[in-house]
Amino acid sequence: MFASNFLASGWTQAMSSNEQISVAQLSRLVGLPDAPAIVDVRIDEDVAADPLLLPGSVRRDYRTVADWGAEFAAQRRVVVVCHRGLKLSEGVAAWLRHRGIPAETLEGGHQAWRQAGGMVFSPERLPPGASASGSVWVTRARPKIDRIACPWLIRRLIDRQAVFLFVAASEVEAVADRFGATPFDIEGVFWSHRGPLCTFDAMIEEFRLASPTLDRLARIVRAADTATLEAEPQAAGLLAASLGLSRMYKHDLDQLEAGMLLYDAFYRWCRDAAEETHNWPVPKPAGEARR
What we know:
The chain has about 290 residues and is α/β, with parallel strands linked by helices.
């Protein structure tokens, strides 16, 4: 009787490894610059049943971990995800640790993440090459708002290895054709403004990134990018900081790196600090003020 209750309780799964991360813990790291690399090792049948992936994750075949494991040697932290957090993720994580790569499994796996309502994305719109060495994107030089916001979104939540090319506006589509890149934030291409919405909005929609935090950030980006600053109080600050960065950096890739930090800060504000206020001097109690 004890043995059957022990198995039914799922205690064997909980005791399977001390190298686990919980759904709640991982959800606090998603979207941050130091988020762990996430490797999805679910079998094809499970992916067919639910093709959405954890943010920033890549799919790999658990059977060939000896071949691809070295890809993650430079990572400070790796989280391996299978369907329920059992044998596949346990085995892959153990193999990676054998190679000296810090690896954990997601407790409860993809199933637990989905049940908890964790953010996911659809890889359907990923450009070719994203699953191997990173997708390649191209847009106009001298970025300001959308052309920094979109790379931030892609690198933080879609494709950590994505490459961004900034070229003369007249050459974007030709460069896209010659170098196998995906054009964005120019007229007449798929990844661009749609009515009152900007390219950042389009990417959130197409990648199916449902998140209250991203929704709030998108409203700020949209207001800053479409000259509707009155729509969001924070939009003027984002515009001012973005224009300042564009004058601080001669090279677009340097500006992109600085802008990534700016959007990291706005993301954290949207997620954790939107209700916080600050004032100085701190108001004193009425009795103390009379002394």
